Amino acid sequence: MLAARPAYAADPARSRGRRLPEPAAPTRSEFQRDRDRIIHSTAFRRLVYKTQVFLNHEGDLFRTRLTHSLEVAQLGRSIARSLGLDEDLVEAVALAHDLGHTPFGHAGQDVLDECMKAHGGFEHNLQSLRVVDTLEQRYPAFDGLNLCFETREGILKHCSRRNAELIEAAEPGGIATRFLHGGQTSLEAQLCNLADEVAYNAHDVDDGVRSGLIELEQLLEVDLVREHWRAALDAHPHLAGKRLLFETIRRMLSAQVYDIIDATRSALADAAPADADAVRRSDKPQLRFSADMRTRSTALKRFLFANLYRHPQVQSTRARAEQVLRDLFATYSGDPTQMPADFAEREDRERACADYIAGMTDRFAIREHQRLTGKTLF
Prior knowledge:
By secondary structure, the protein is an all-alpha fold. It has helices spanning about 30-40, 40-45, 65-85, 85-95, 105-115, 125-135, 150-155, 160-170, 175-180, 185-210, 215-220, 225-235, 240-270, 275-280, 290-310, 310-335, 340-345, 350-360, 360-375. The longest helix has about 30 residues, at about 240-270. It has a single domain (about 30-200, about 255-375), classed as Orthogonal Bundle (Hypothetical protein af1432). This is Deoxyguanosinetriphosphate triphosphohydrolase-like protein. Pfam families: HD, HD_assoc.
C-alpha cells in the first residue's frame, strides 16, 4: 500500500498546468510526461558532448553535462523518496536544469553574456527555460515542450531582476514572481538545487584526481574529504588507489544525503507547511543541509574553485574556448547566412546568434570555428 503524499509535496493532479492546455495523458502523471519530453528532446541529447570541467576529447571517463544531470537526478530521487516528495518532478527538473548551458561550460556562458551585453545579456538558467519554452521544435501545436508550471519553476533557478520583470509582464504571477516579491520554489525544485551542488562537488573531486590536476593528499586538507577517507581506511585498511578514492566519495555522498534528509525533516516539522504553496510563501528554503554540513560543503567547493577550476591547465583550455565563441559570435552576427536558415532569418539577430551558439556541443563549436576561421585552437 502506498504511503499518503505529504501535504507539502507537489501533486501532479493539482499542477498549475501548462501554458497551452492539453488533454491528460492516459498512463502518465503530468510530471512524468514532462520528464519524458525532456529526455526525448534534442537539447538533452546534446548534453553528452558539453563540458562539465574537462572537454569531451580530453578523456572518455570525465563527466559531461549529461552524466552530471543523470547524477543529479539519481541523488534527487533518492532524497525525494525518503521525504515523500514527487520523484518524477524532481527527475524532470534535474534532467532539464542544464539544457541551456553553452559549449565549454561556464567559459561559454561568460563569453555569450559579454557578447550580449547590449542586447539583454545571457543567463544559462534563463536559456534552459528558453529551450523548453521556445527553442525545441518538435510538436505541431506549439514551440518548446509546453511543460508544467512546476517543472519550469524548477528550471529557472536564478534570474536577474530585469529578466524577471520581462517574464512577469508576459506571465503575471508566474514562475518569475519570486524573484520580484520574494518566496521560494517547491520543495522538489529546492531539492534539485541542493542535489546539483552535492553531485558536482563529488564528481569534480573524482575527475580532478583522475586528470592528475589535484592530488588526494591535497584533498585531505578538506575536512569533509579527510573524515570519509579515514573512515574508508578504518573499514578497509588495505584499500588504496582509485578504490580508496571511490569509497571516500561514496561515503561523502551518503553523509550529505542523510544530512539533507534529517535537516529537512526537522525544518518541515518546525514550519509545518499546510501545502506546496505554503512552502512557496516561506522566507527561506526548507530543503537544506544542517549548519555544520553547509560549512563543510562550502569548504570543499572553495577548495575545488582554487585548485581545479582555476588550475593553469583548465584556464588555458578556457582561454581557447573563449576565443572560439567570440569568433563565432562575431562571424554569425556579421553574416547571419553562416547559420541555418531558421536562425539566420530571425529579426533578433544577436539573440539568434546566442541561441545558435548556446545549443552547440563542444566538438561542433570547434569544427565550426575551424571551418569559418581556418584556425585550429584545439
